[in-house]
Fold this protein.
Amino acid sequence: MVMATKAYDKSFREEVYKNVDSGEDVKLCMQCGVCGITCPLRDKMTHGPRQIWSLIRAGKRDEVMDSPDIMLCTSCYTCKVRCPRGVKVIDIMHGLAHYALEQGIVPRAETAKFGKVFWDSIYKTGRVDETEVPMRYTLTAGPIHGLFNTLEMMDIGRALLSHKRMKFKLGPGIPPSKKIKGIKGLKKMLDKAQAMSPGKEG
Amino acid sequence: MDKNQACYLCQGCGLGEALNFEKLQEVVEEAGIGEVKTHEQLCSPEGVAFIQGDVDGGVNAILLGACSCRVKTNEFDFGPEVIVERASLREQAVYPSEAEYEGEEEAGEDRQMLAEDYLRMSAVKLAKSDVPVPFQLEEAPETSVMVVGGGVAGINAALAAAKAGVDVFLVEKEDALGGFLGKMAKLAPENPPYQELEDTHLEALVAEIEGNDKIKVYTGNTVTETKGAPGNFDVTLSGGESFRCGAIVQATGWLPYEPEKLAEELAYGSNDAIITNVDMEAKAKAGDLGGIGSVAFIQCAGSRDQNHLPYCSAVCCTVSLKQAMLVKEANPEAAVYVIYKDIRTPGQSEEVYREAQRKGVVFIRRGEDYPKISESGGKLAIETADVTLNDTVEIDELDLVVLATGMKPNNPRVVEPPLVALGMDQEAAKKVAAEAKAACDDWSVLNLKYRQGPNLPTLKYAYPDSHFICFPYETRRTGIYAAGTVRRPMRVTAAVEDATGAALKAIQATKAAAGGFAVHPRSGDMSFPEFAMQRCTQCKRCTEECPFGAINEDEKANPLPNPTRCRRCGVCMGACPERIISFKNYSVDMIGSMIKSIEVPEEDEEKPRVVVLVCENDALPAIDMAARAGHKWSPYIRFIPVRCLGSINLVWIADALSSGIDGVMLFGCRRGDDYQCHFIKGSELANVRMSKISETLDRLVLESDRVRVEEISFGEVDKVPQIIAEFMETIEEVGPNPYKGF
């Protein structure tokens, strides 16, 4: 992989340090590569975490912000646990993804959509409904794609139903998911947390 | 001395069951020791009292048939006037042959013969040993120490020595003390939590020196002549003053690697904004960092590079980190880049690395290639490989590029002709010697008036150390110790520690000179070589081969030994073709007679005999440990400890082979660049001498396979039985020595 040669530029790293959750940790990376080598998704990544940090330091804004890699993290936490410098790898990864979305950049559409459905479910009901979330996610690709996708997954669905691992629903919201007790309190907490995220304060 | 000999045989540790003590007793009596006693455990308080009783009654030469001479040394020490010779029946006879002994009559016989031989050899050794009389200098020995170099190591060495109560002469060539410490703006963090840059505190150190009446400071002076030996070195300074001191610490520090040599690789000299870390330090000291908007440090500038300094100076990374932090302190907005191969921050300086990162310094890993530095629009630009990005990157708009150059010792390089020259013909040897001489630096720090030259012998890169792990501070000139960056590249904290260590070593050397005993590694040894001068042929081999330059010579090339420079290795004894050099308790005749006392069975008995001359420093402990670890080996082996493989005189090998011994093995320390020889070139010398043994063997019409040199280190215990087994196999293939029975 050869990228266009471009001079080091300090503006993007300053931007990340300031606006991304735990962004200042990027400074601390010593390029040992433990994060990349422990990542279960390393085969799917063009740039592992440490390369992302290098790109940030080099000021390669587009390479980082457009990279699907920053949205691949499954939050397994192995890298964060193993980092000898204590860099909060996961927090930065999610922070970068979040920051990209805020800037109107969608590095990886599927993740963005799934995240939105997942978030909505939690925000509205206080729980992740195992029937509702996949249904809504599969419909994000349009009704026809959604229908075919659902048919494809029918066997798994039937097996889950017969073992009572999933509740039956006719469609999204039919019948509506149960809300947890104190959903109002949770919403307040989530709103506050969102308002506190980096780059939002002040 | 009049010897009143007695022998004590120990039956403890299973020896009682394994050996026939009645027969052993007979053997010792035959060897000339009338009094032989047996005890069930000699090292027990009762056993020691048993011997002590006889010592009080007049016994002054003891043969102990028990365990190795390396154990129970306190128990079996009966004072300096009593010679104790120990036959290692346990480690060398019983333990290694145990398995074969079980139920087998013949194996038991072999073991008995083994033990008997060891007792015979020890009896001979005891008969030929004398109590050493310590050497005394003619004039009263000095206890003072001269420290050459007034930098951080020199200052601290002087202070440490003065605190220990000795007078110090501190010689510094500049007009003020301080050395490189005086040129530093700040020190990188040296104390927990290793995040704050620190002051040098030079003024306080200098004030401490000036306030100490034990320290006499000679600034603006160099050493023009050093004569003599530990205990009385006579020193003359360039200022004309002279004094006498007991030992010397050389703390002459370091020289920056010449950046001019990097003109091609790193464009040094093409632009004033390309400077070295030394220049950068001066800039920082002058408070001239505020205007720097962007700076790049290039690590390993001429270090770890076969065309420049092949080694890592271990400090440049920390220095660049410190300077990067200084730039950030002066201007937090400055863009600071460190372009490195590997960041090497030994010890706690890893914290400095972290702190520099926290301050926002950007690190770029460059790989092996040097970055390209160019000029554009009045500023500098760098194009470098970025290994983590697998790409070439550019950094432009740089105000300054700092080359992190390494350290060279401030000490003249000495190249010795390879020892193989000893075996060459005159012409070839002369050529090799001339080549070596040409590669030496022709300046000197100490201007030693030694026959072997004015400088301390150096290792590969002109460091005068002899082995920085095993014998720190020891140079190859006894009584002269190296400390600080002249010994190896190091930071301030390490230099302070070094200075203290070297100062204490120097004091130790003066005590040893006064008491007439040896310094490391034969610490406390009272014996010293004596020369039967009437038979000397002035061949110069002792003066040439002494690893420590202990022997001067007069106009007629007669050797003039300096016993206080001597480390008692016996290399001179091994070198002397006339065999005129001997110690009171170690001589050519002694070992030769020991070899001859071994009983060699007739050829038809099919019991070969092999003599192994074992270095006492590494190989003997390895053998002891192997025996104690339960390793077994052939009962046909006879070990004879020697002070160093370099002390082996070729006549011993001839003695052994002509008396029917089937093979001789030399078992010693590793030689070469990573030598572990305690006397530096002893095993190397032994190897060279052995390569010439073929002459002797030819004369005896014997196979050269019968003689072998093996190297072993302290930790290679498992290799002991393996090496022995291989050699025994060879001996079996070669067949019995035809000289048996003559």
Summary: Residues 142 and 167 of chain A are 23 Å apart (CA to CA). Chain A has eleven helices and no strands. The two ends of chain A are 40 Å apart (CA to CA). The mean pLDDT of chain A is 89.
